[in-house]
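Job type: complex structure
Entries:
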Amino acid sequence: MAKRIDIKDVNIYYGKFHAVDSVTLSVPPRSVTAFIGPSGCGKSTVLRSLNRMHEVTPGARVEGRVLLDGEDIYAPSVDPVEVRRTIGMVFQRPNPFPTMSIRDNVVAGLKLAGVRNRKKLDEVCERSLRGANLWEEVKDRLDRPGGGLSGGQQQRLCIARAIAVQPDVLLMDEPCSALDPISTLAIEDLITELKQDFTIVIVTHNMQQAARVSDQTAFFNLAGVGQPGRLVEVDDTEKIFSNPSQKATEDYISGRFG
Amino acid sequence: MTTAMMDLERPATGPTFQGVSAGRKAKNVLATTLVTLAFLLAVVPLVWVLWSVVEKGLEPILRADWWSHSLSGLRPYEDMGGAYHAIYGTVVQGLTTALLSVPIGVMVGVYLVEYGTGTRLARITTFMVDILTGVPSIVAGLFIYALWITIFGFSRSALAVSLALLLLMVPVVVRTTEEMLRIVPNELREASYALGIPKWKTIVKVVLPTALSGIVTGIMLGLARVMGETAPALVVGAYAPYINFNVFDGNMANLPLLMNDQFANPETAGFNRTWGAAMTLVLIIMLFNLLATVISRWSAIKK
């Protein structure tokens, strides 16, 4: 199940613009790694390069290697669709499929991959919704549209949808930034539970959140305007928030940044 | 006593909020009047047209023969028979056109939005579709006449009419599909990709269903427009007063052609048939619009 990720000397470009400069970083399995840093420093871009979502944007490309348990996901023979099936993603804004019911949203990944067995789909639906702590709230209205849920419920629905395909890694791009504190707490608890089964990478602007949920924290920063973003340092979360080795990190987490 | 109190309570500066000035009131009345007049001006002809059609066309279409008989073998002054042949023609030609142009139009729209963004081919296609949108219907008719009948040597037929109508309908479908696909949020596509769903399946199962209600409305509007076209039918098809079920060969009537033919008939029968056909055409198009509303309601995104 959970696999480790090794990012080796990754450079990311949008057309001619060099967005991220030479990131090297390891994410151990069954752990939560948080990416923090100011806006535009490339943390989301790095995250999106981990499941080859980056290249969906026209003109975008990635150089370097991203290894999933030693296997390069950018090798020429690798199908990006397979990569994304193995490395799931949850987005900043909850994005359930508006034409589908709650049940169909959860099993969308399996159903569109051709799984027809109704019993199996129902099983996966219940397991995933339980996994996302949403089952009790929606079990009586699985046939209702997913768009009718509250923002926090929609985000947990999206997490259920992502874990339904049983990925090895779960990427989360600011999953709580559109949610109220109660829903945020629910998602953070969920992340701590999901850590048992998945390798999780989460981008967040909320440093308390990074401190609460993550085992390892990576701080990204910009060298200057128009310069590519880069990884300043990565270490145990406790160390980053108590005694970082770089001055820039300390300035950022203590609010003296910029 | 009370007045003195009120005077004391009044603040030294003037009130923050003042009454509406006379100038603004006058402008408001003027603008309201103009807008209302414009609305009435637009509604009057519409109601008038509908009223004329209903007044003159209702009686003929209430006869039982109207829906079940053609005008085959009838003299111009014999006020009997019906429009069955033309109703059949209008519906069949419309549906043939839709059957051919919907797949082409939707696929071109999908290409433009999902695959061709920014490419040279997409730019050329958009340009061509824009030009095609402005092509007068008689030009489409002449083009199909030259291509289908003169060069390829086929005979005039309902199919040829449908091909000419296709040229008019495809741009409408392309445009609508394109616009509807563009407003589907990119986040939905990414959500689908992130589940390991291939691009084509994302388009078929996520993007198109999300845009479906808008696309259906566009198709129905295109169909309504095409069914009322007379010019291409005059050029590549031809009126026949009898029933012709064969789409591929022979003259086949449709409602505009029937009107065009009977308009020249000075008898009362001609008058009745012309207006009856007009009424029928309005009814059919209304029916299709109603159908479009039902389908787009049914396929709309539910909350």
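Summary: Chain A touches chain B through 30 residues (CB under 8 Å). Chain A is about 35% helix and 25% strand.
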